[in-house]
Amino acid sequence: MTTTSGEFVLADAAAYAQAVTDASEAAGAYYTGGTSALDDDAYDRLVRAVAAYEADHPDEVLAHSPTGKVAGGAVEGDVPHTVPMLSLDNVFDGEQFTTWTASVARRIGHEVTRWNVQPKLDGLAIAARYHEGRLTRLITRGDGMAGEDVSHAIGTIEGLPDRLTEPHTVEVRGEVLMTISQFEHANEVRTAHGGAPFANPRNAAAGTLRAKERSYTVPMTFFAYGLLPLPGTSAEHTEELRTLAHGELMDRAAGLGVNTPATTDVSGLTVDTVEQVLERVGHIAGLRAELPFGIDGIVVKADLAADQEAAGTGTRAPRWAIAFKLPAVEKITRLLDVEWNVGRTGIIAPRAVLTPVDIDGSTVAYATLHNPADITRRDLRIGDHVMVYKAGDIIPRIEAPVAHLRTGDEQPIVFPEVCPQCGSGIDTSEQRWRCERGRNCHVVASLSYAAGRDQLDIEGLGGTRVVQLVDAGLVADLADLFALTRDGLLALDRMGETSTDNLLAAIEAAKAQPLSRVLCALGVRGTGRSMSRRIARHFATMDHIRAADAEAMQRVEGIGAEKAPVIVSELAELAPLIDRLAAAGVNMTEPGATPPAPEGETEDGASGEQAAAGPLDGMTVVVTGAMTGPLEKLSRNQMNELIERAGGKSSSSVSKRTGLVVAGEGAGSKRTKAEDLGIRLATPDEFAELVADLLD
What we know:
Residues 611-696 form the BRCT domain. It is built from 24 helices and 25 strands.
């Protein structure tokens, strides 16, 4: 379900799993040289589609998902931002924009009287730090809290001088991009040095910015959109920067010798009314095709610093600025073929192959189809002209065949009779077809998932190594990992004594993972990280889980009448594998959990509720912001595990039922909502003290 344009329809778990794999592979290629098959816009849309699916299916989140990770997990953000480097929320039409402006007015207590309108440049956000007027560091946005150091690119970016016109200590934020002419020149230079041409200017800018060992350089261009003080900035200058309106800040940046949109035909403009904002939006949109660089919308900001401060900032985006996305685009193209891809659990997902079509600057070549029943319902045929629509400029879909363009040469779509991955039979009893071998059909994907950080966390067992083990016949399922021998591994290519010993040690350590991790590693359909934790906490042991029928399984929070029998059936199917894992010494208990008593009885046989213990007993806990101190190295998944081991329930949203909010650095809207609702707040250090007995 990949596409060279970046448009995806994540119709089901198989489509989602494929999207995660595609995004991870694209990030790896993108951040090591800009050669990804997906352009930067395509990658961003794919990740947003993944995030949207995860929001709707939180129990199916895959460990290697790029969401919430710096550079999709391909690089680490090692340089903290002094002030979070946030994204922008979106609106798509005048009505949505007017509604948003009303919400800003309610927050600040009066109508905004000055707005700044400027193009949303299609580049890569960076922070440029100047010390006493000299450019010393370049940092990417990263995850907003920390970014990647790309200071090696200093001196290659037009519009970002090595020295300011005044010796100030400041940070300039903006976009690095390639103009059309720079992009064409970059590809000429790149191909002359034996490299493949970049797909588009944004991909080219991102790859070039991060490239450290190329024998050539190509120019890029910087446009500023922010100016803020740094530690070491004089008190006088700090006060000036914090009180200037946005338009004045941009004038100040230009005065320091930094490039701003003022040098273009779509310079930032300060206006007084919503009507004038919309007029300016229309003007910039009308110039889009003529600009020498790409834009993907228009940014509208409350201009006055006082209004910005009163409106405040959320965890992901400021409340005083918005991105006005340009209108969606639809085009007609041809359906050339349908491919059938097999996901990690054996789900067979159809993918439409299209005649590539350029839609608003991106090439759409593939689209995910829902399932065979949906194909039949819409009467799609090979050779059809189909309408491809990009809803909200994010998610494309095939609306329907354009029947009046049919010539009679169109052919029916042929559904597979056997699994396209392994040739086994297909279970067609449900709308989503599945290989009869299930997860055994795609053993590489299953094992890679099981070894992931949030499952068994087997360091050194990445996808390439899994393929090597499978191809060598050493591993056919998860239990085989725990039967690997030193001699067997040493016989493989690129496996020396050190790497062999490290891998065996990691596999041995994986045996001690809690039951929730083991259950998640099994990849039971209908479960994920959080659901695996709930099941493990509820039943405490694998024996109790396997003994549960559908009715007992429904007593776990979040498991309904439809999901329960699927989980029970999956566990029965996995019984031989689970037995082998247990025999290999893999842990089958959940630390701190108590097995459920018979219905209506406590553990000692008395009537009543099952006893529970722990410092967070029965409490719903939300974690927000960056953790510090003893919790600094814990991932969000590990924090959730800690909460549940302490008897609590982890949640991602604050509500009246929330009992505690752990607010770290950069906590925003969730902290604010907790304060409004009178919910107890704890710092990372306070929370660490509360659960000290459970910390390693």
